[in-house]
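Could you help me review a protein record that somebody else here produced? My question to you is simply how this chain folds and whether the tokens agree. Thanks in advance; the entry in question is below:
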Amino acid sequence: MMSQVVTRFAPSPTGYLHIGGARTALFSWAYARKLGGKMLLRIEDTDRERSTEAAVDAIKDGLSWLGLNWDGDAISQFGRADRHAEVAHQLVAKGLAYKCYCSPEELTQMREEARAAGKAPRYNGYWRDRDPADAPSEIAPVVRIKAPQSGEIAVNDHVQGKVVFKTENLDDFIILRSDGTPTYMHAVVVDDHDMGVTHIIRGDDHLTNAARQIIIYNAMGWAVPEMAHIPLIHGPDGAKLSKRHGALGVEAYRHMGYLPEALRNYLARLGWSHDDDEIFSTEQMVEWFSLEALNKGAARFDFVKLENINGIYIRETDPAYLFQVMVDTAAEVGRSVDHNGLVANKATVLAALPELQPRAKTVLDLIDLAQFIYAVRPLTIDAAAAAILSDDSRALLADIVPVLRELNDWAVPAIDAEMRALAEQKGLKLGKLAQPLRAALTGRTVSPGIFEVMVLIGKDASLDRLSDQTGQ
């Protein structure tokens, strides 16, 4: 019987939770949830100069917002330094690692000699079999693992297949620095073993690391976790996704108005697929997920597709949930006027949302579309709406105002009937009345049905806004 599946997400807290890391966390989370296992969170904070608490908080907040909840407490790799050193010294005692006393100058000379001989610049094993009694007292040693000097190391990968590395290309790498702190390569192995990790899902830039880490697993007699090395996300041009492509942290996507459900859906399709399904719930993803369905080819990030998927989710999401996201987003991005207006006009915004949702692709779109409800007079008229409000349009609005002022039944059917009658009287199509009405009442050219807008904001507000454009 297979032991409980344990995956892990192990980011370095040197910045935000980037989109590639979020996808790795999603796959690790989905696999663990599918098999009733656990996903653990390990903060790889051994780089003390670049690691910050703010970055740790950003990573946790990003995971929580995405709905990728980890099991147990987050583990600090730095806090386990004593355990890493303990294992390194065990390997020395077993004769499977050794102390190296080479000076920086000697290491530089080794690299130069290797290059001159047309070889890769690597450590030549100088202290591998020397008597420690020869050690110079002025040099604080590092600890190096004894890499096999012949044969091969195979990484049996769920995505890449069997990948074979010749051990002659792997030198005796450092596992403990001269100050007693562990290297990344060593700390990762000790932590994954001690945490009971059974499956490692990470970027394929770690594939070479896997071969080195297997050396440490074998030296300690520990079981090697199953591995899945996924291709990195590429930009639209096929190059590795970077800042120049707009590669941002999860927090930025949140502030741009993407829903976590939509981002989960989109990220799942970046390197994993289930038949031709494009839109699916998180529950469906967990049910369908498998490591074998991960793609070997790199996926390309497509903002247009993400926006389209987000639009589908916005159309199908409960208005009450969306309203709260709008309020939270407005506060987070510093749009206090919108935040206060949304909160003060909750019932009206909720009533308008079913009309607004089909017109929006992001939460910011929704906030912009809802502004007509709480906009302060005189309205700010955008360029497109200003182009509609010509002298002829304002004259037409001046004819509309008295008709609306006399209307007692302020409801969509009654307003519609009066405007149709006026349009027919003037020999115009209804749209010729609706367009300047929309521009004057919302300051924009896109809104819900303009008669619905008039009912939502009320008769007095409608007449006041029209007065601002007609002087009546």
